[in-house]
DNA sequence: AACAACTGTGTAAGCCGTCTACTATTTCTC
DNA sequence: GAGAAATAGTAGACGGCTTACACAGTTGTT
């Protein structure tokens, strides 16, 4: 039995909501006033979980590990968070952070800025890519989307097309960051430890051999290309794809 | 100690490879010939795991459940598969299946066909979206990519740009399918069970209220748009985004 | 001031998941 | 046929999520 009760009457039925959604929007009561004061807080739990995720990935943000680092037993956390899933939702929302301020005049420049900032956020918090995506927007998540949609709305597109374009850019930032994580740039590879370097090299050699012996030469050729030898981020896959998407949107806007 | 040994000398060091990669390409020996014949096979295990994933999602493709359905103990599976991760890799590769045959003449039409087929595959096997993405290509995976790259290569783009474009389309199919899964069309919603319908409705009502009370009206407006009331797939977000991406690529090809 | 209601934490335990010994049994090779 | 090798079963360690229960501390009410 959790202490969570809703005092103010909310029109929607909170029971049918996915775990964590109501909590993320702060729609749950923190509990009554009788009884001992909580020794900790949801914010503290999320902060510790973020630390763990930063250090060892999303799998390390487990209830036992968070509890151990705080100094309580595992199930004491259930006084603050109703389930693991809720913790993850709150964790992810916090990791999104606030969207960047976007310039007013040029929608294209603003959209590009938005995309690059999101891409960078995914790079700096790689485990955010491992959080399963749902459509249920959380506050920070929604603020990002709202910023982009506001900018794209200035093109005169219909609202639904605006949303589609926003999804396109969100998707690209996410996928690009995932790709970057898995295929590190030469600079990143140099910073990596020997084991990781060996693993990357082993995969490349192995895959090239397999692809060619299976007559998949087009892929093999593309993978051998100097893209993987280039250090400059401006020429990488993310920027290339971003330019194509923005070109496509621009062509649509001009009809 | 597994029975897996490599007899033919492979230049790459298989030890450094991520789990499942060598197995997916069939580079591991099936074991010696002494001893009892295996009562089962990797193919059978993957088929059963696929059944389970189709029925209850990727989480249901666990070793205990697969073993129970086959009629063996859990760890007997370790005679066929070296780890859970390897099973998932093999499962995912099998789910990709063979790429469609693509027409020769029009690269744009071929790329669109490729994207739609991939999108449909993700729709029919939603759990494939839950398999964490790595760059390590597996045979079917690579065959899909090879087919698309071959087509895109006819535009005369540099190999690295070809690969980038392919990633763009792959990303879009994946993200679009994920979006479709989370925001079902009205037709799909009608087919859903009452609980699911109630959940979807609850989320929409709740989110709309929260977005507006947080002054995130741009998102709220876009979400209320008749897009969600339209049944026709050709007008949905996936097709819209696909057209924009292809437009962007076409503009680049024509320089 | 005393009691009752309520809340936070600890202990214990259940369930499920991955994975590693060890043992017994079957089958192939010599 | 005898020994070697591989397969499947038994048992168990370990970690994760979650619930039930008891205890202790705090608050509001009588």
| Total beta strands of chain A | 0
The parts of chain A where pLDDT drops under 50 for at least 5 residues are 1-10
Order of helices and strands of chain A: HHHHHHHHHHH
* H/I helix tally of chain A: 11
Which chain pair shows the most residues in contact? Answer: A-B, 85 and 84 residues
How far apart are the first and last residues' alpha carbons of chain A, in Å? Answer: 58 Å
Helix content of chain A: 55-70%
**Largest beta sheet of chain A, briefly?**
none
**How much of the residues of chain A is beta strand, in percent?**
under 5%
Write down the overall geometry of chain A.
Answer: flat
| Average pLDDT, all residues of chain A | 90
List keywords for this structure.
homodimer, 255 residues, mainly alpha, disordered N terminus, DNA-binding
Chart the SSEs and their pairings.
The structure is a homodimer of 255-residue chains.
Chain A: H1 21-24, H2 42-56, H3 63-70, H4 84-96, H5 107-124, H6 139-153, H7 159-182, H8 186-191, H9 194-213, H10 217-224, H11 237-253
Chain A binds a DNA duplex (30 and 30 nucleotides) through residues 3, 31-39, 62-64, 72-76, 78-79, 83-84.
Describe the overall structure.
The structure is a homodimer of 255-residue chains. With 255 residues, chain A is mainly α. The first copy, chain A, has eleven helices and no strands. Chain A has helices at 21-24, 42-56, 63-70, 84-96, 107-124, 139-153, 159-182, 186-191, 194-213, 217-224, 237-253. Chain A is flat and about 70 Å long. Chains A and B meet through helix 6, helix 7, helix 9, helix 10 and helix 11 of A and helix 6, helix 7, helix 9, helix 10 and helix 11 of B. Chain A binds a DNA duplex (30 and 30 nucleotides) through residues 3, 31-39, 62-64, 72-76, 78-79, 83-84.
